[in-house]
Amino acid sequence: MNSLPHSFDIPTLGPCIHPSPGLQKEWGMADGHWVADDQRILLDDQVRNGRVNPTAVPNEHSVELAGPRRQIFFHPSATTLAVVTCGGICPGLNDVIRNIVMHGHYGYGVHRILGLRYGFESLNPAFRHRPMELCPRSVDKIHHGGGSILGTSRGQQDPVVMVDRLHALGVQVLFVVGGDGSQKAALLLHQEISRRGLSIGVVGIPKTIDNDLLFMDQSFGYLSACGEALRTLTVAHAEARGGRNGVGLVKLMGRDSGFIACSAALASGEVNFVLIPEVPFALDGERGLLRAVEARVLERGHAVIAVAEGAGQHLIPLSNPSHDASGNVRYGDIGAFLKQKISAHFASRSLELNLKYIDPSYELRGGIATAEDRIFCLQLSRHAVHAAMAGKTGLVVARWHQRFVHLPMPVVASGRRKVDVEGDLWRCVLESTGQPARMD
Questions:
Q1: What value does the mean pLDDT of the chain take?
Q2: pLDDT tens string 170-218
Q3: For residue range 328-371, what is the model confidence (pLDDT) as tens digits?
Q4: Is-same-fold flag (18-220+368-412; 222-366+421-433)?
Q5: Dihedral over alpha carbons 56, 60, 64, 70 (to 10 degrees)
């Protein structure tokens, strides 16, 4: 934390010379309602030896607080906002679209808001995707359905082409709703805009059920996905208990971070093994997974296993790895692999096995948001609009230490958050499941 690779300062498009419409509407009516640019919170909130981060340099170890500014950069009636949803679908996408429109229209008086179709393809004229005109009436009920009314896509587009398209559409602010890959692409857009000296803001809203974005408490969609995963684990537990020597094996999303598997297992209280990408494990040997599952089944009559999709990839031979449209390596199917290995192990020891394998991956993505996620989407969206109208750019709105903040895009794009195997979450998983701390 003492030598961070990026500045935490937020770029702005220029001086804020217009009074916020909230001054006339008297939002809250109290001075404390407005946020100044010099209001910041510490990145590291731990106290050591009675001092908070004693070596901290203020702007390197603190982050700008989100919220409405008294003065704004854009004149609302002359402003065009645009929103694009990228990557895989996720619970809460329609909530975010709706809330951007509602807050932009009613909060600031912006009357031209565009929905860009099918991710960043929308900014490449070769795809011929026409933008949607969004207004409160057209988005009024969209949060009652899953997915995104705008559609999504994966894959890279040329930032030069995309900026040309934004300029041709007359867009002043682009809201990019997506995960780490989408925010990396948004950063390239921001850099190209800055190179040209254009007054176009780029504001990110963090979307990923894997919950793997840096310097934020969580991303939207994560809690909804955990709730769906919990329902699947409950079914797997019932199936495991229903047969002699029953095993319920559930594969959950989590390419490089095992947050869903950990949280859903803790909520269930019935999971005996949690396998995540951050913790390598062996199959064979006295301390391997197969022997551990066998011991659990012989002792208690059943077992439930939650495995993240990125776990155990070192065990799966891939002779010719391929990549998806976003450039990610296509992982081997760890769920099907474990099903085959567990079945073969029990057969080799002449033990009966009733194994049920469940893969609910896309069910986790396509549902509607839970109540808590909907509130979270509302807060992220309104803070994104506040930041955008104040002329802030190259940032992602996030919640950190339970406060909403502005994170620079280079920081968010610099890596992925992972489960801390020395931290409290993983210790809690080990205590809850009773699984061995090491299976190697």
A1: 90
A2: 999 999 999 888 999 999 999 999 999 999 999 999 998 889 898 888 8
A3: 677 889 999 999 999 999 999 999 999 999 998 777 788 899 99
A4: yes
A5: 100
Residue 183 phi/psi, 5-degree rounding, is -70, -30
Q: Residue 323 to residues 228, 326, 336: CA-CA distances in angstroms?
A: 28, 8, 20
What are the tens digits of pLDDT across the range 256-295? 999 999 999 999 999 999 999 999 999 999 999 999 999 9
Verdict on whether the full-model pTM lies above 0.85? yes
Q: Is 37 a catalytic residue?
A: no
Cβ neighbours of residue 220 under 8 Å, at least 6 residues apart? 90, 91, 92, 95, 96, 205, 206, 207, 369, 373, 376, 377, 380
Q: How is domain 18-220+368-412 classified at the CATH fold level?
A: Rossmann fold (3.40.50)
d(CA 162, CA 120): 8
Catalytic pick among 9, 31, 44, 210? 210
Using a 10 angstrom Cβ sphere, with 0-12 exposed, 13-18 middle and 19 or more buried, the burial of residue 77 is: exposed
Return the CATH class of domain 222-366+421-433: alpha beta
Element (H, E) at 395: strand 395-400
437 pLDDT above the threshold of 70: yes
Every domain of the chain and the residues it spans: 18-220+368-412, 222-366+421-433
Alpha helices in 114-258 (DSSP H): 136-139, 159-169, 180-196, 222-242
Cβ atoms of residues 353 and 343 within 8 Å: yes
Rounded to an integer, what distance in angstroms lies between the CA atom of residue 92 and that of residue 179? 13
Q: CA 108 from chain center: how many Å?
A: 27
